[in-house]
Design a protein that fits this description.
By secondary structure, this protein is mainly α. The protein has two domains: 84 residues, RNA polymerase sigma factor, region 2, helix turn helix motif (Rna Polymerase Sigma Factor, Chain: A, Orthogonal Bundle), CATH 1.10.1740; 103 residues, Winged helix-like DNA-binding domain superfamily/Winged helix DNA-binding domain (Arc Repressor Mutant, subunit A, Orthogonal Bundle), CATH 1.10.10. Helix content is 67%, strand content 0%. The protein has ten helices and no strands. The chain is elongated.
């Protein structure tokens, strides 16, 4: 049995192209969670998201020979996930349904929250409630806003990577993020939260940097 756990992306791709099913399973293991995370926030239906993720990795397997090794494999995968999901939304006009809120490490909530390990239990409960409120608010955004928020804050992608994945101009990506953050702040305040007091006004510093870009 080949050892594939610690090999580079380039070697992993090479082994898949050489016919290694183990290597392809490792590729799926590495990327299925982030890919599924983006899709589920676009369609807000966990079962549908799983079906679309399977379709994505089937396309990845079929198209891997077209992958440019000069690119990041993750960006290429997310591009396929983006196109597959948008094609479905346009074709089916999917009606969205609420998801149970997941409190995952690395969500947009953590972008502005302090280290929970040094907080009191009461404060941790409060922060957990805020994280839930943020996740619920993200779920109400338009699909294109949800996608860029997840790519930027959960997957920690640079703007240029988001441009490559979505095919949107840089200005549009920044506008989507700005509008998404503004909408989230308004909804959080309407729900009784004060983002400025609780988490440092989400995206305020980054918005200023964008405007100066």
């Amino acid at each position: 049995m080949l050892e594939v756990l610690n090999i580079s992306e380039a070697e992993l791709v090479a082994r898949v192209l050489a016919g290694s099913q183990e290597a392809f399973r490792e590729l799926v293991e590495r990327y299925q969670r982030p890919v599924l995370s983006v899709i589920v926030r676009m369609v807000r239906d966990s079962q549908l998201a799983e079906d679309l993720a399977q379709e994505v990795f089937l396309k990845v397997y079929r198209r891997l020979r077209t992958f440019d090794p000069q690119r990041k494999l993750s960006s290429w995968l997310f591009k396929i996930a983006h196109n597959t999901t948008l094609d479905h939304l346009r074709r089916k006009h999917v009606s969205t349904i609420p998801l149970e809120v997941e409190r995952e490490e690395g969500t947009v909530a953590n972008e502005h929250l302090p280290d929970l390990s040094v907080e009191s239990p009461d404060t941790q409960v409060h922060r957990g409630d805020l994280a839930s409120a943020l996740e619920a608010t993200i779920a109400t955004l338009r699909p294109e806003y949800r996608e860029v928020v997840v790519l930027r804050y959960q997957e920690d992608m640079a703007y240029q990577e988001i441009v490559e994945i979505t095919g949107l101009p840089m200005g549009t990506v920044k506008t989507h993020l700005h509008r998404a953050r503004k909408e989230m702040v308004e909804k959080l305040r309407a729900a009784g939260w004060d983002p400025a007091a609780d988490s440092g006004s989400p995206g305020q510093t980054e918005t200023s940097a964008e405007e100066g870009a």
